[in-house]
Amino acid sequence: MTEVALTGLGTYVPDEVVTGEEIANASGIPEHVVVEKMGLREKRVCPSDDDHATDMSAKAAERALADADLDPADLDLVCYHGSEYKDHVVWSAAANVADRIGAGNAYATESYTLCAGAPIALRQVAAQIRAGDVERALLVAASREEDLVDYGNERSSFMFNFGSGASAFVVETASQPASDTDVAADRPASERARALVRESAAITDGSFSMDVVMPAGGSKHPPSRETVDAEEPMHTLDVPDPEGMKERLGEVSLQNYLDVADDALDASGYDRSDLDFVAVTHMKRSFHEYLLDELGVDVSTASYYLDEYGHVQSVDQALAVEEALASDPPRLEGGDVVLFLAAGTGYTWAATVIEWLD
Fold first, then answer.
1. Helices and strands of the chain, counted as H and E runs
2. Whole-model pTM?
3. Which domains are delineated in the chain?
């Protein structure tokens, strides 16, 4: 079977910081709850007129391509898998990023699975590479959904951890040497590989599809003076029934995380005992620790808790990997089995196994 190599990784976060103390002051939630229970010391946010989704994606993409030692002209595909809240509505961020980085030979498309986007997009593009549809692809994602959070709305408090940033992965076929006409001919993907992408799994429970919504802005409630001036905010994210959602999630979420993890590991020829590192969506600290304990890994060495970034939608996995590589000592090394594990409202749980090489 065609090997799929991850040859480049890049991230970008804006400079502006909001601290847990500031979130506590804005929301009325005690600071120790924000920092310790919600797991948010600080997060990055975007100035209102800077760092839109494509700006951040392009910066992360350039870093990933440099890491892969690959010319953007060699790309066959640019796939955006980040937030649907982007520069414009009904608009292709992928096409814009492809143009800005000079990927003139690539086609551009988008994959949208909210916060489960990273393992899902890797699954989709890896399948295209194995099928021979494309040879080199760039996956980019960005989020600034922090803009959509109302700190005065207690119902949406589980989203107070939303932060901003972007990520990019370069993935390529590693089974064939580059041709003489390729820019990358001197160093084929098999020599530049940082990791190998293995198998994936996912579960969706659509009964949660209406639990997190922004009331206005879509076709049901188009933007209007009435929606903007409404007494209850209609252009920020809301959770109509937070207690009901919490109760129903409590019954299924842990098991769904474990099921997709086990299925992806099994399909890749592994089990939980083989896990060396888990790059998982940012969540409250207690559930993060409980989930990692159930998976049988040491939370202090086999994961990275993103309490200085918050939850950056489908960017979380790349941030965790970069921080793990930069840790002293590194939490991620050559030969490690890595699990990208995520969940996105809707609700979809997803996992993809990565074999780290460098």
1. 10, 11
2. 0.95
3. 4-196 (3.40.47.10), 200-356 (3.40.47.10)
